[in-house]
Amino acid sequence: MGEVVIKKLDCFGRHGVLKEENVLGQRFFITCVMETDFEKAALEDNIEKAVNYAEVASFITTFVKDNVFKLIETLADKLATNILLKFNVNKVTLTIEKPSAPVGLPLETVSVKLTKKWNDAYLSIGSNMGDKKAYLDFAVKSLKENEFVKLEKISTFIETEPYGNLEQDSFLNGALKIKTVLSPTSLLKLVNEIELKAERKREIHWGPRTLDIDIVLFNNEIICKQNLIIPHIDMENRAFVLKPLCEISPYAINPVNKKSVKEMLENLK
Questions:
Q1: Where are the alpha helices (DSSP H) in 146-183?
Q2: 98 catalytic, yes or no?
Q3: Rounded to 5, what percent of the chain is helix, strand, coil?
Q4: What is the CATH T-level fold of the domain 2-117, as seen in this structure?
Q5: Where are the domains of the chain?
Q6: CATH 3.30.70.560 for the 119-268 domain, yes or no
Q7: Selection from 249, 114, 127, 248 nearest residue 183 by Cα
Q8: What is the pLDDT of residues 205-246, one digit of tens each?
Q9: Measured distance CA(262)–CA(9) in Å, rounded
Q10: Catalytic one of 40, 98, 133, 153
Q11: What is the pLDDT of residues 135-155, one digit of tens each?
Q12: DSSP conformation class of 24
């Protein structure tokens, strides 16, 4: 990996909380650091395989000029996301300086700094109502069509016995590997929306469902929130999660117990 750096690009924009800022506008200085793979471009000495910093600079200038946000934090977030989507970069760090910020005190500049990247995530999908395969296919199609997601691997779908509440039909389960610019919380919101479109109802704990999508792993992160626990809290005890996951990524690591998917599946057996 290498870095392409655009330093203190002079841009004009109308971003700010005050109405005057939105009307009159002011200068912004933007530094953009992009992490990308140099190998193909360097070996072939080919601009087509490289990140064209002239195109990136032009895109940043136009984006800053054509959009209006109250907060430069919002500008940084939206701009970073669009750079990841438009250009072949793995990670981008933006520093946005606002030297004419209406602070009323002598200062050189105020600035925000933000880093965004393509994240690796693994999802478990399952259904045990109606046309089970159609529901799983719907989940795959919905993720594939989302601009913030790259669908990288899909396991075969396997039939499994119900877990927890045994008085229900068998499940069809699978696993997906994706890359996404979304945060874990935003990814959870997306998969919940897909479940809702599949008429998922949360009436019985561990009960039957048209579609269930769980975030099993997200990068190497450990997250414990009221509505989101990553790695999935019970993944090491669930063959219906581990079997399809082992098919597409046997050496993905659970950062809590430091075991690979393959190890967890063998221990479960």
A1: none
A2: yes
A3: 35, 30, 35
A4: GTP Cyclohydrolase I, domain 2 (3.30.1130)
A5: 2-117, 119-268
A6: yes
A7: 114
A8: 555 778 999 999 999 999 999 889 999 988 999 999 999 999
A9: 48
A10: 98
A11: 999 999 999 999 999 999 999
A12: H
